[in-house]
Amino acid sequence: MPLATGKHVLASLLLSAAVATQALAAGYTQHPLAQELMAEMRDEFGFTDEHLQQVFAEAHKKQAILDAISRPAERVKPWKDYRPIFLTRARIDKGLEFWRANSEALARAEQQYGVPAEFIVAIIGVETLYGGNTGRYRVLDALSTLAFDYPPRAPFFRGQLKQFLLLTREEQLEPTSLTGSYAGAMGLPQFMPGSFRAYAVDFNGDGKINIWTEPADAIGSVANYFIEHGWQPGEKVVVRASLNGSDAQQGLTGGLDPKLNMKELKALGWSAQTPIKNKTRVTAFRFEGEQGSEYWIGLPNFHAITRYNRSEMYAMAVTQLAEALADEIKETR
Q1: SS3 for 264-329, per residue?
Q2: CA Rg, the chain, in Å?
Q3: What are the residues facing 171 on neighbouring strands?
Q4: At what angle do helices 103-113 and 117-128 cross, to 10 degrees?
């Protein structure tokens, strides 16, 4: 009897292993939602069944990705704690090094798009430490896992997965070869696939768009993204403000999109440290700094930065890192 039981256990284990191996080999090909997406890619964009089966056989659910995106958001840090994360000596030094190594591409991007070099460098510095941390997950796994096994945001990631398949075809890239963040953001500037297809550019003129290992393409792509999202060449980004009067707090913007123009903000008791045209649409916000409350007025270029990442503190970190980089690069010239 014990021998028979042992044989049963062994057979059961072998069967389980075989089933697991078969499931792993199939990847996402048998998932109903993946099959729906494959049908759409075939019917709408002319992908072949053979190609799609090959791709999704290599796409695998990653629990680490689900854990990362489901993790409760960290407590929002006040500005006095958030700022030191990005305004470090190491990040500034690496930024200066990146600027000097890519000075030609940065100067050309500034001339062509009107986006100052320091803001392009700062974005790449905040996003990936100038390419030092671009993500360790395969983009195919990240987007498939979130599109098919993360219901809260499945529609968004489903769309990004379709964009990813299109860009790999257009750029003649192997889908399994590309890596990025757990959310599928890619390369030095951390573009999602949809942003890649809409805004990434071949800035070095070699016939390919490579934001993973070609800094020039990343530089041109960031500049193009900003222009397409309302960057105004030659204009300021953000201005420090002071408040006066009982109605001043009413001027604080709820959210990131401008609701008032400068004339209306002035009427509520806001004063800008440098002049802003009355018709300029602005955002107004308060940060808790090391010396207490700080009040700021965000201009259209500040709003353009928040389109890259929907956070006022992110946009301010980019701005102040850019200013620090610009100040120090001048001293060395």
Answers
A1: HHHHCCEEECCCCCCCCEEEEEEEEECCEEEEEEECHHHHHHHCCCCCHHHHHHHHHHHHHHHHHH
A2: 24
A3: none
A4: 120
| Rounded Cα gap, residues 325 and 93, in angstroms | 8
- DSSP 8-state class, residue 171: T
Instruction: Indicate which residues carry an active-site annotation.
Output: 127
Rounded to two decimals, what is the model's pTM? 0.90
State both tokens at 244: 């006066």
How many residues make up the chain in this entry?
333
C-alpha to C-alpha distance for 293 and 323, rounded to whole angstroms: 21
Ordered per-residue pLDDT tens for the chain, 333 residues:
444 455 554 444 444 433 344 445 579 999 999 999 999 999 999 999 999 999 999 999 999 999 999 987 666 799 999 999 999 999 999 999 999 999 999 999 999 999 999 999 999 999 999 999 999 999 999 999 999 999 999 999 999 999 999 999 999 999 999 999 999 999 999 999 999 999 999 999 999 999 999 999 999 999 999 999 999 999 999 999 999 999 999 999 999 999 999 999 999 999 999 999 999 999 999 999 999 999 999 999 999 999 999 999 999 999 999 999 999 998 776
